[in-house]
Each structure stands twice: as C-alpha cells, then as structure tokens.
Amino acid sequence: MELLWLISFVLVWTFLGANAAVFTLQNKCQDTIWPGTLSGGGSPLLNKGGFQLEPAESTTINAPKGWSGRFWARSGCKFDLSGMGNCSTGDCGMLQCNGAGGTPPASLAEFTLDSPLDFYDVSLVDGYNMPISIVPSGGSGNCSEVKCVSDLNKECPQDLAVAGGNGATVACKSACLAFNEPQYCCSGEYNNPQIIFSSPEHGGDSGGDLQKVAELFSPVATPA
C-alpha cells in the first residue's frame, strides 16, 4: 500500500512512499516562503534545492527510492534576476540552494527512505524559524504524525532570539548555536543522555527559559 505523508511546515508537504516518493509542499502561511531542499548520502538534489511558494500555493517533488535529505522553509527573502540574494531566516544565498544548506536557525523536516524502513522527523536541532509538521497517511507500521505547530518565536529567550528588520523575533537559536558550549551541544562529557541538563551561567535567571527551549529543540525520529 502506498504511504501518504502530509508534511506541514506552515507549509504542508505530502510524501508518498513505495518504490519512490512524492512530496507535496503547500504554503499554509500568510506570507510567501521559499522552501529549501538538501539531499544526503549521495541522493540526488530535488528541485534544484529551492523555490518560492506564495500563500496557499503548492508544488510536488518526486524523489527516487532510497532518498534521504531535509526540507526547510526560508522567510523574508529578496533575490535579483539572477536568483542571488538573501533571506531573513534559513538563508542559503540564492533562490535555488543547489546543494547548500540553510543557515541556522531553521526548522527541519528530515527523511531517510527505504533503510529498510522509512524514517522521518521534525528537528529543531538547528533552532527554529517557523512551525512544521509531518502527517503520514496509509502504509503500514507506526506512521505517526510529527509536528511542531507552536510559534516558538513568541517564547524565545532574548539570549537566543534572532531579530528581523523591524525588531521582531523571526527565529530562535538553539542553545548550542548561541553559546557553543558542551552542555548545550551534547559534546564531550555531555554526550551522555544520563547527564542532567544544568542551568547556564549566561543570562543569569534566563537559565530556566533556556532549558525549556533546549528541551523543545530535541529531534524525534519516527520509523514508518
């Protein structure tokens, strides 16, 4: 049976799995977004790595069997006629990212297909810029919905906030990106799930907020 995936990124993506996959991306935001795609493990690049979607607009992308990679959405982009330019969030320096990843912070939808199961997750390991979810339909196995639909920019601690041109928070860094210390990057002695997260020395009493956001920024992988 074909497996349908509805990937909602405040854009909605649909993934069909069988011998290949079809991702349907729909922008459910009120503003224009610029989805980016990045393939991994030698998988072919999809849709030249990026494109534009107006509100309520959608597009479909075909992916071959065994594809792996990620999707993210960029915001506040301006490009010239040659396709070069910049975005407020998720930037790769051009309209068609062409193999370049998005600059954190950016919410991610990640897939590894046919390995031998299909694995997918919503990840905030690179921080957060907008809501995202994956909703599979059909197929077999534990194909559960994965989503982050809260606007974390409204709750982002000042130490992690990325401000747009108007001063409003447009993205929220991970604590690892903001401070680059082992306790936030799960490196060194902290590369152990048994070690309890300790409050940061940065920002004084903001430690509780940083811990809250760090816990939210933990990726969840789900097999299909």
From TrEMBL:
Signal peptide span: 1-20
UniProt-listed InterPro entries: Osmotin/thaumatin-like_sf, Thaumatin
Cystine crosslinks: C77-C87, C92-C97, C156-C172, C176-C185
Origin superkingdom: Eukaryota
Alphabetical keyword list: Disulfide bond, Signal
PANTHER family (alphabetical): OS03G0233200 PROTEIN
Protein name: Thaumatin-like protein 3
